[in-house]
Design goal:
Blueprint (H helix, E strand, L loop, with lengths): L8 E4 L3 E3 L14 E3 L4 E5 L2 E12 L8 E9 L5 E10 L2 E8 L9 E6 L15 E2 L8 E9 L2 E6 L7 E3 L10 E20 L22 E4 L3 E4 L13 E4 L6 E2 L13 E13 L3 E10 L1 E6 L2 E7 L18 E7 L2 E11 L5 E6 L5 E3 L1
Antiparallel strand pairs: 1-2, 1-14, 3-5, 4-5, 5-14, 6-11, 6-14, 7-8, 7-14, 8-9, 9-10, 11-12, 12-13, 15-17, 15-19, 16-19, 18-25, 19-24, 19-26, 20-23, 20-25, 21-22, 21-24
Amino acid sequence: MRRLDVVLVVVLLGIAVVAAQEPPSTSAFARWEILDPEARVMRYLGRESLFLVEGVAWLPDAAFADGAIAFDVALHGQTGFAGVAFRGQSATDYELIYLRTHRSRQWDALQYTPIFGLQEAWQLYAGAGYNAAAELPLNRWVHVEVVVAGPTARVHIDHAVEPQLTVTDLKRPRSSGRVGLWGRFGAANFSNVTVTPAPPAARSVADAPRGAPLPGVITRWALSPADKAPADPPGGLPTISSWEAVEAEPSGILNLARFRRPAPAVAGQLDRVLARAVLRSTAARPVRLAFGYSDAVTIFLNGRAIFSGRNAYLERDGSALGTMTLGPDTLHLDLRAGANELVFAVSERFGGWGLAARLLDPSGVTVE
């Protein structure tokens, strides 16, 4: 029997469905899985549209790994967010590209973040390759197209020939998954959704090889279980009975949401994980450490607290986003000869749960 490779093309609000015949319905969104109790199907600017207040609407039966996703969005002007989820493995795990509807022409008008267990990571992934400027007009239909190939996603706003945002390192494992619309704060209506998966013969784009880390970047860590802890820094190093070995990205970013889920909520407490690295030095010596974290950290060296700080949204000043970078924060570590235990106790509110660390003068020091 000859196998027929069928390219799925789903045009909703258009309306045409190729590769499956669907019974007629009164709304193109009738079969969507809408995970937003306040969402409404409504006519807006002359079209049937989906208005999302706070949630995701999943397209039924769309298995998408590579290809193109297009939709029109009408923005209303208030602070909010509107975008597309793709390669969705569940309602809590997917890739996400969205518009900050109130940041037209600003450097962070567009944002990419992976979602692990409903945890966003925009504070960890900020700047070139994750953010871009774009004009986001109000009160008219604006076309958005996302073209995905392997580890890369290119975002075109308002029929731009060149992409305004190019993501070259999608963080989640490459796999086929669902497509959905995503909205926050009732900032947008969505219309004319089109999903065009790449044909099998075109799916030859290889994942980008992991680059080598910069000298001194700590990539090998061990993690404690997640727990809850007061927002105030701990007075001493907590006792941990078990550790799990994990690896950070070559950049040094350790996205804790990859490995841990938040513990059940406790009033007045934050999610916390301890990350441990062993630094073996050939002699007693000081070593400079550059580090980043989100949202709060206490750093211990050989069981003694040597630093506590906060880098949450609006924590450091009235415009601080809480984004994590390697550089502004540095410490001198007084290492002893032999093994030294470095522990980060990292607490999280929202926006990105992670850390990064780099030894700036690593000669004579190895990480175990």
